[in-house]
Amino acid sequence: MNNITLSHGSGGDATSKLIEEVFRNEFHNEYLDRMEDSSVVPGGKRLALTTDSFVVQPLIYDGGDIGRLSVCGTVNDILMSGAEPKYLTAGFVLEEGLDTGLLKRIVHSMAETAEEAGVRIVAGDTKVIEHKGGKDDNPGLIINTAGVGFLNEKVNVGASLIKEGDAVILSGNIGDHHAAIMKERLSIRNEKIKSDNAPLNEMVRRLFDNGIEVHALRDVTRGGLGTVLNEFSKESGQDIFIIEEKLPVSDAVRDFSALLGLDILYMGNEGKMVCTVAAKDKDKAVDIIRRSKYGEEAEIIGYAESPVTAGEGKLILKTGIGGERIVGPLYGEGLPRIC
Ligand code: MG
């Protein structure tokens, strides 16, 4: 089987072969192996559910690929509700002519990432569509993943729960994924720039296990930190202050973004989260994140404060030279097909 053809989506013999050769090898587990129309799994009392479609170009980039991304994106969204991710579904839309070797590599990466994130892929679907791209455009694929997580009865997080005095903690360097995608598209060589594609299970679990009073949690994806923190201030009615000097950014990404005129505050990430915690817990919380996988560069970057006009919270950046600037959310497109 060299390339995907429309017959692989027919539901007949070719589809069975594709499932056997590409998907079942990598994704087998006690639920999926039953090969029923839907998987029946043990459940929890409170569930977190989410879905996301992944269209990133290029399909493989420094630090990750669309397969790893499709697992991390959904796992992280479940984690951000305070839930423990358990099950994923995976839907594939393949373009006719897609190289099967490339597909296998991507599916393998999904399986590895699911293992790392402690989730099982329990249902899947494949469709094949005509390749509509130009001659220079290789056939690609789109992946949709949906996920289910279990939520502990006591856990309750959300941006509306942010309180005056909360500390704002960022789990690590920003801009890495965005810079890695741009680097590939512009064919710029820079070994130091890699996507941060990662599942954030460990840091989230340890925050809750250690009794940290977490109020809000969000992964810093498309739209960047500026957009997420605007959502925080809007939902909570609190002003969110962030201190420019405290924002963790690698030298490579700082130089790269300066060169291309990109604002770090709006650059996308795929392995970073921002949280607010009660002031009393801030030092313990940042220490926990720093000791967790993918959290070494975590920093307390700011705090929440009640605004002069009640309920009208803004995001305010305190600059290196002592000034203050109101930061709005990202308007317009940003970088397309980044996730
Ligand atoms: Mg999210």
Give a written overview of the molecule.
- The chain is 29% helix and 24% strand.
- The chain is an alpha+beta fold and 339 residues long.
- It has a 7-stranded mixed sheet with strand order 8-10-7-11-9-12-13.
- β12 (315-318) and β13 form a beta hairpin.
- α2 (66-79) runs parallel beside α3 and α5 packs antiparallel against α8.
- The protein is globular.
- The chain binds magnesium ion.
- The site of magnesium ion has 5 residues, from β8.
CATH homology group of the largest domain: PurM-like C-terminal domain
Biggest sheet details = 7 strands, mixed
Indicate the CATH topology of the largest domain. Phosphoribosyl-aminoimidazole Synthetase, Chain A, domain 2
Distance between the termini: 28 Å
What general outline do the C-alpha atoms trace? globular
CATH architecture of the largest domain: Alpha-Beta Complex
